[in-house]
Design a protein that fits this description.
Number of helices: 4
Radius of gyration: 15 Å
CATH class: Alpha Beta
Number of strands: 7
Strand order of the largest sheet: 1-7-6-2-5-4-3
Shape: globular
Distance between the termini: 30 Å
Number of domains: 1
Structural class: alpha/beta
Bound molecules: adenosine-5'-triphosphate, magnesium ion
Length: about 170
């Protein structure tokens, strides 16, 4: 899988995660409004506790979700209707086999107004579509390092959010 661009940011604390998520969510909505022939697929990688759910939660709140956003650790899939979007938040950590994704019926959700945030995507390899963007988190002594990689043209503006926040 060939990447088109990469960006890096240090997220020193959760408040910086919120700042990034606010910008990221706004750009995601803008891009998804224009380029929605296929669902948007965002992979979140990184060890246990590196902040994947924290980021998704902040994005959903930035998009307008006011209800409780629980981690899909046990349910594997949580879904939200926000404005015109169908948003699916998956945590595949407990998946024994990628084929289990068929039982969750995820293909039924591959509609043009769908946005997927997928934690532990490697557990779904072979069944999941190619991502637009991959977020990879690593622990730092203070906070987290985040690497963003874009795999589609339509995802490139989302990496600009990083540069804007870094300056
Ligand atoms: N940038 C950050 N700086 C400091 N703490 C953070 C940062 N991002 C997240 N955290 C904290 O890290 C903890 C774990 O976060 P979270 O549950 O989002 O991890 P996760 O990657 O989803 O883990 P899992 O793989 O178990 O699903 C939370 O207490 C959260 O507040
Ligand atoms: Mg999580």
């Amino acid at each position: 899988m060939r990447d088109l661009a990469k960006a890096h940011i240090v997220l020193a604390n959760v408040s910086q995660v919120t700042t990034l998520a606010n910008r990221f969510a706004q750009l995601l909505e803008d891009q998804a409004t224009q380029y929605n022939k296929t669902p948007w697929i965002i992979f979140l990688e990184g060890d246990l506790g590196t902040g994947k759910t924290t980021f998704v939660r902040a994005c959903l709140q930035a998009m307008g979700e006011t209800g409780k956003i629980k981690s899909p650790t046990y349910t594997i899939l949580e879904s939200y209707e926000i404005k015109k979007w169908q948003i699916f938040h998956l945590d595949l950590y407990r998946l024994a086999d990628p084929e289990e994704l068929h039982f969750l019926g995820i293909e039924d959700h591959f509609t043009s107004d769908a946005i997927f945030f997928i934690e532990w995507p490697k557990k779904g390899l072979g069944v999941l579509p190619k991502p637009d963007i991959v977020l990879n988190y690593k622990f730092l002594a203070q906070g987290r390092a985040l690497e963003l990689t874009a795999f589609s043209q339509r995802a490139l503006p989302l990496l600009e959010s990083i540069h804007e926040i870094c300056v």
